[in-house]
Design goal:
Blueprint (H helix, E strand, L loop, with lengths): L2 E4 L3 E7 L2 E8 L1 H9 L5 E8 L4 H9 L3 E8 L5 E7 L2 E11 L19 E4 L4 H10 L5 E5 L2 H6 L1 H8 L4 E5 H8 L4 H10 L4 E5 L5 E4 L4 E4 L13 H13 L7 H18 L13 H14 L3
Parallel strand pairs: 1-4, 1-8, 2-6, 4-5, 8-9, 9-10, 10-11
Antiparallel strand pairs: 2-3, 6-7, 11-12, 12-13
Helix pairs in contact: 1-8, 6-7, 8-9, 9-10
């Protein structure tokens, strides 16, 4: 039932039409874990600096997230500052990035974590992702996320990694960039040929496309009247997806459709507040209730 997740743990400054928030808990692995914890035990792998607030460590502990393999370094915590314009909430404008502790980071895990059956490599340098993968035994399911920065700067490392994973999650822009295909179905096919058996392409408010050799399907996004802050929505989506799949014995069409529905539903809560204000208080009962509304919206 357990899941191990590697990625960034960050302090975010975010500006949207709804306001400005500073020093929010963020990062790809943290948003992922806040979602996946609803379904399974999450072991977080990452690094923070001496300036990382103790209240956030306590907060993550209270949410049941295992921090055994979160290390602290004397440098500063990874920081990101971004802005979203009302006309385009799908694309953040990066105002500042401070890599801090990430500059020389090499993941370390405890011996008892080497045989955790489910793994998610959240967005971080693909060489760091490979380092973690090489420490693990024989995981049952390996999921991977990346971003355009690594597609452009470390494509060879990313392609080596993709040969070793089972599931690849990308947004539509990343899928097009990595595959060289504009049409998303052709892009998904090309990504499948790079290694991962399961391809999930996120399309923001336009929903999600799922592709594998056996079948393909597409779902809409849950309709949200007002988006407050989309930061971490993709990571939250991945947390719902891998979190649910870590509970299933099979990966047939029924299980994969339900996993994508859960992922879509949890991500819809994320955008309704700054940072993790919505996802950190969520219960699975609330997620199930909204998922039923999504199904009715889809005509089921």
């Amino acid at each position: 039932m357990a899941l191990i997740a590697l990625g960034t743990i960050a302090l975010d400054n975010i500006k949207t039409d709804a306001g400005v928030r500073c020093n929010l808990l963020g990062g790809s692995a943290t948003h992922f874990a806040m979602s996946a914890r609803l379904f399974t035990k999450v072991h977080l792998v990452g690094i923070v600096g001496h300036d990382f607030p103790v209240r956030y460590i306590r907060f993550l502990h209270r949410k049941g997230i295992d921090l055994t393999s979160v290390t602290t370094h004397h440098e500063k915590t990874f920081r990101w500052a971004g802005e979203y314009k009302k006309a385009d909430y799908n694309n953040a404008i990066t105002l500042a990035t401070e890599l801090g502790v990430l500059l020389n980071y090499a993941p370390r895990i405890a011996d008892h974590q080497r045989h955790i059956p489910h793994v998610f490599l959240a967005n971080i340098d693909p060489d760091i992702q490979m380092q973690l993968l090489n420490m693990l035994g024989h995981p049952r399911l390996i999921g991977l996320d990346s971003m355009n920065l690594w597609i452009q700067r470390k494509k060879k490392s990313l392609l080596r990694l993709m040969k070793k994973v089972d599931l690849f999650v990308a947004n539509d822009g990343e899928a097009r960039s990595l595959s060289g295909e504009n049409n998303l179905i052709r892009a998904a096919r090309r990504l499948r040929r790079l290694g991962p058996e399961l391809i999930v392409i996120k399309k923001g408010e336009h929903g999600v496309l799922f592709y594998c050799d056996r079948f393909m399907f597409s779902f809409p996004a849950y309709p949200i009247e007002r988006v407050i802050d989309p930061t971490g929505a993709g990571d939250t989506f991945a947390g719902g997806l891998l979190g649910y799949l870590s509970r299933t014995r099979r990966q047939g069409v029924k299980e994969l459709k339900k996993a994508v529905l859960y992922a879509t539903t949890v991500a819809s809560f994320n955008v309704e507040g700054f940072g993790m204000s919505r996802t950190s208080t969520l219960t699975l009962a609330q997620v199930n209730q909204r998922m039923q509304r999504l199904l009715r919206f889809m005509g089921h």
